[in-house]
Amino acid sequence: MEIRYKSTRNEKDTVTASQAILQGLAKDGGLFVPTAIPTLDVSLDKLATMSYQEVAYEVLKLFLTDYTEAELKHCINSAYDEKFDVKEIAPLKKADGAYYLELFHGATIAFKDMALSILPHLLTTAAKKNQNEGEIVILTATSGDTGKAALAGFADVPGTRIIVFYPKNGVSRIQEKQMVTQKGANTHVIGITGNFDDAQTGVKQMFGNEELKERMAKAGFCFSSANSINIGRLVPQVAYYVYAYTRLLADGTLKAGEEMNVTVPTGNFGNILAAYYAKLMGTPIGKLICASNDNKVLYDFFETGTYDRNREFILTTSPSMDILISSNLERLIYMIAGCDAAKTTELMNSLKTTGKYTITDEMKARLADFTGGYSTEAQTAEAIKSLYEKTGYVMDTHTAVAAHVYNEYRKATGDDRVTVIASTASPYKFTRSVMGAIDAKYESWSDFDLVDELSRIAGVKVPNAIEEIRTAPVLHNTVCETEKMQAEVEKFLGL
Fold first, then answer.
1. Any idea which residues carry the catalytic annotation?
2. Bridging pattern class, strands 160-167 and 135-141
3. What is the CA radius of gyration of the chain?
4. Best label site of 288, 398, 413, 436, fewest CB within 10 Å?
5. Within the chain, which residues score under 70 in pLDDT?
6. CA-to-CA distance for 454 and 434, rounded, in angstroms?
7. Which pTM was predicted?
8. Over the stretch 97-125, which tens digit does the pLDDT of each residue have?
9. Are 112 and 320 a contacting pair, CB within 8 Å?
């Protein structure tokens, strides 16, 4: 069955998977969604005998139907190779009754590697398939992790350039060092004097600027995105939830058909939406537990049915979730609106003009698979300390948000189904916050002394991603005001 893609704001026009990946964002500002969610056509028992790469193929072939088997397998095998430091790619670790799906074993030690290792291959294949002669300019806003993972994925990839915007004072020191030391003649990193939402809004405005697109086309450029608004980011993430279920099936933790719950620390909503797609494909997933930090716009939405970004933006120790405009939620809104593009457009326009929207009771009833929770800064720190003291397992701040929310959910509901917690970043990415949570004595230590101490207490080797930035020179030091973002892009491209 051919799966095509349509915009959340226009159900009439459809494009192929490769065209959707190449465009990134639909022309009307909507997000591409599949015309139907395909069903797994291999049994879960059979998937349980497969490698990560094989499971990924069985998922991706159903969504990306205009890619040939040879093309897809080439993309998958080029992505999930020795860049990952474990053979399983996404191992599960049991600690204190939950299963932590470690999604941080790639080149930049965050879950974004799971999709951004394959996106450059999907994109360059799409360009060839569609006779795209121009140079692809990847334009990306990051709250900390997407930026480095995208830079690493696209560095020196022929026919591409990548420009990453990040909030200058809104990421961890390690995250910033990873980005500003990035090599590659086609890479450009810019700090902005605003927050992630400002960066994301600026990028979306450039995508929608027809005059800029025309000038770029004349100069031989076209925009695409590495953010999770690109369907080529979302689809590879579906694979690891299918994989996680089949590992628990293989080791006897789950019986075939028995449901597992999934808890996801959530900012832009892509990672938890991928779990929902996995459920709709036939993976037995029960509750999707959406975990927020103090920027609890999603928690409030699930509680009330009103999405309201008119609130204080709080900088937390889980900066990748410091987001008030969760772009991927639009894809879920479209689904619960009965795939009504006009209704989705109305709600998104309301968000743009008033900063909020309220869904109907009928739409709210369709959110029964989801539940929300949030963790304060103190609760996040306590979750890190408590799990370490009980088990010796050290998790990062984002995973700790999810762990706290999961524990509160289990206490409140008595739901004791097997639960997978998406562990979205290595603790090495947030050593200052993680070590400070474990013991206040670490507060005065330097960043790299903390790295070595974390390795000692956790018994985990320092990842290469950290070792290589210890002495790496800063190659990117541009900082600009939000309103100057487009000017910086034009300068980099020589327009």
1. 112
2. parallel
3. 21
4. 413
5. none
6. 9
7. 0.93
8. 999 999 999 999 999 999 999 999 999 99
9. no
